[in-house]
Design brief:
This is Peptidase S1 domain-containing protein. This protein has four helices and 15 strands. It is of the alpha+beta class. The strands form two sheets. Strands 1, 8, 9, 10, 11, 12, 13, 14 and 15 form a nine-stranded mixed β-sheet that branches. A six-stranded antiparallel beta barrel has the order 2-3-4-7-6-5. The longest helix has 18 residues.
């Protein structure tokens, strides 16, 4: 009887594999498949972001148009108009990732709109503005604790993907990359600057969680009761001269090398969560580690998969 049941189960598995119904349950299978689709479309439409960094640049530079087409600004409407206070990044035609703490501001209403396709705030010729339909905050985000600082924003109208607006891939590997990271946003690049109107970019080193823990060991136990948890947080920028904590919600990213060996897409490794004030050198910024939240992201963004 046991042998018969085993043969029936084996036959069922074989039939489903043959029909293409057997799904890969490994972490990141859906995210990686979507990345392949995004890459193919970008190459087909000649809209791959172009790497514009020169070697060994560690201080902030202005981003070029279409260099970070996944970047969005999150807008809060008030008496004086819309304030763009938090960043985010596009991961699908109707979803953006940002930080949870940016969706629950203390001194203003929840965000209502997002704006994509903007590199310079003075040039909105390629902008796409979308109304927020809903916000999904990670269920384990419990402020003032800084863990699980991640949220999904769903927009009412799909983004129109082009050279200036397109998604980013998600980094599914749990280990730090062995290359420099790229941090983009609208935050100042040193303590002498105000918030710029033009998007900036900065190359950063990935820091070990051990060294990061030493630096943040004096952080209030109410916000980091277990310190810098490796699988949930990633640190970067500790060796960057005059580095600053950029606008929250922006990605810590790397170039993704595809099967053909070319760079066409970025991988989002982290989400800018918290850091130190400008002018304090040797202190890294801390990012929510994307790979830890892949199952939650996939479940909400691509449930049909």
């Amino acid at each position: 009887m046991k042998t018969a049941n085993f043969l029936i189960c084996l036959l069922w598995v074989c039939l489903n594999i043959t029909k293409g119904n057997f799904q890969d349950s490994s972490q990141g299978a859906i995210a990686n498949e979507m990345c392949k689709i995004y890459t193919e479309n970008a190459k087909k439409n000649n809209s791959c972001p172009i790497p514009l960094f020169t070697p060994l640049i560690s201080r902030g530079l202005f981003a070029e148009r279409a260099e970070f087409p996944h970047m969005v600004q999150v807008g809060y409407k008030g008496e004086n108009g819309t304030e763009w206070l938090v960043s985010g990044f596009i991961i699908s035609k109707n979803y953006v990732i940002t930080v949870a703490h940016g969706t629950r501001p203390r001194d203003r209403n929840a965000p209502e709109i997002v704006r994509a396709g903007v590199t310079d705030k003075a040039d909105l010729s390629t902008a796409q503005i979308r109304t927020i339909e809903s916000i999904i905050v990670h269920p384990e985000y419990k402020p003032p604790i800084k863990y699980n600082d991640i949220a999904l924003i769903k927009v009412k109208e799909d983004f129109i993907f082009n050279k200036f607006v397109s998604p980013i891939c998600l980094h599914t590997n749990e280990e730090n990359p062995d290359v420099k990271g790229i941090h983009s946003g609208w935050g100042p690049t040193n303590y002498l600057e105000d918030r710029p109107t033009h998007m900036v970019k900065i190359l950063v080193n990935f820091d070990s969680n051990e060294s990061c823990n030493k630096i943040y060991s004096r952080q209030s136990t109410s916000s980091l009761p277990q310190g810098i948890i490796k699988d949930r947080l990633v640190c970067a920028g500790g060796n960057t001269i005059d580095g600053c904590q950029s606008e929250s919600g922006g990605p810590l990213q790397i170039f993704r090398r595809d099967e053909s060996g070319t760079n066409c897409m970025y991988d989002a490794v982290g989400i800018s969560s918290f850091g130190v004030p400008c002018g304090i050198s040797q202190k890294p910024s801390v990012f929510t580690r994307v790979s830890h939240y892949i199952p939650w992201i996939e479940k909400n963004v691509w449930p049909q998969k």
